[in-house]
TrEMBL record:
SUPFAM superfamilies to which the protein is assigned, alphabetical: SpoIIaa-like
Residue ranges occupied by any STAS domain in the UniProt entry: 28-119
Pfam families found in the cross-reference section: STAS_2 (PF13466)
UniProt-recorded name of the protein: Anti-anti-sigma factor
Top-level taxonomy: Bacteria, Bacillati, Actinomycetota, Actinomycetes, Streptosporangiales
Lineage: superkingdom: Bacteria
Cross-referenced InterPro entries: MlaB-like_STAS, STAS_dom, STAS_dom_sf
Gene3D superfamilies reported for this sequence: STAS domain
Transmembrane segments: none
PROSITE patterns with a match to the protein in the record: STAS
An example Gene Ontology molecular-function term: anti-sigma factor antagonist activity
Length: 119
């Protein structure tokens, strides 16, 4: 497993860890804030991962304490890239607030079936 941290000055911190399973799916764990300050670097990392390891990615978002529109856009862009390559990005473990945002934006359908909420 490789770990990468994205450190931000005043805007908080997003830390990701990446691992592969034997089935060709990459698993990303995101902790902290996925926002305007961290979304570009996160999106670049997901695109690199899709390009190097394959188009199927599972992102565990249970450790996210905040996700804004830019964070959602990074996830949607990565999913678009993955789908063009024959895969998909799925989300697991969104906290209730993020699950609500995903429902309100209909993104819960896009990131299904693994998009289940953590209570």
């Amino acid at each position: 497993m490789s770990t990468q941290g994205i450190r931000l000055e005043a805007s908080g911190e997003l830390v990701t860890s990446i691992e592969d399973d034997d089935g060709g799916t990459s698993r990303v764990t995101a902790r902290g804030e996925l926002d305007i300050a961290s979304s570009a670097a996160f999106g670049i990392e997901l695109a690199r991962l899709i390009g190097e390891r394959g188009p199927d990615v599972v992102v565990d978002v249970s450790g996210l304490t905040f996700c804004d529109a830019r964070g959602l856009a990074a996830l949607v862009a990565a999913d678009g890239l993955a789908r063009r390559r024959g895969g998909a990005v799925t989300l697991t473990g969104p906290r209730p607030q993020m699950a609500k945002i995903l429902r309100l934006t209909d993104l819960d359908r896009r990131f299904a079936p693994a998009c289940t909420s953590v209570r």
